Sequence to fold (336 residues):
Amino acid sequence: MAKKIKTEEFEDVQYIKEKYVGIKKEIQKVIVGQDDMIEAIIIAIFADGHILLEGYPGLGKTITIKTLSRAIDAKFQRIQFTPDLIPSDITGFELCDPVTRKSAVQKGPVFTNLLLADEINRAPAKVQSALLESMQEKQVTIGRESFELEKLFIVLATQNPIEISGTYLLPEAEVDRFMFKIRVEYPSYDEEREIAERQIGDDEPELNAVLHPDEIISLRHFIAKKIPIHKDSEILKYSTRIVRATRPGFDGDGYISDMVMYGASPRASIYLAKAARVYAFLSGSDIVLPEHIHKMAYPVLRHRVILTHEAESQGIDPDDVVSKILKKVPILETDS
Fold:
């Protein structure tokens, strides 16, 4: 059990940053490399956002999430998505006692802190949509009754980008509920050699809890208080203009209209500002700067930019579009 953070300790910014570094170190006891993935996952959790992890098999996506749950002393549930799964396997169901004729609710694995939806694209849309209410409203309706989920509730979903057989595209409504889409890349030669050495060895790392779920909730409030983003702030206007620029019809030269079928929703504006604030805090800044917005723009927008067939045929990637937008959108508003 992690030591509870006292009120006066929360006023110590350095103390919180040490906790952030501590979580990374605990994960790195098990995971070799993948620093960008680990950093992005922690940022999303501090910013109260769900995460979609995309990468080839064997890159450590599942074990990273399991290790994270131990580092933050959180309840953890894993659902292996398969074509025969049904929504009640996720949310729960009502049981009727034939003797008493009274019903009782059997809660599903969604009642946890960290929910791993493993290979989420292997279940049909009916099953995937079972997560919509929980991801957006942090509650689940079973029968006629609604139940609140944990205050710290994060869905971390994984999917394989190369397999098509036996998979289903995620509905846009569900994809939009993920704050980040994180691409998990292959390790370097040295990292892969170290992975093999660790697996060949028989040592089991001892993991320690660095934070508690209640402390993460308090940490979120502290960061929001430490780096407020006012409604008239230039950085909020800038992040909103970036999101709006992903939609066809934005640019004069027609690049976005030719390359993008659908752009990001207003939810992306919220997530971009929240993620950039956490990233700014962990980077040691007292304010959100354009470089913080730029860094967070890729994981926030890449799954929300739906490309045209023409763009796909040219090998255009959503990150290419985001990069183009970041270069085109001015930091300060200009009169037009």
Summary: The chain is about 45% helix and 15% strand.
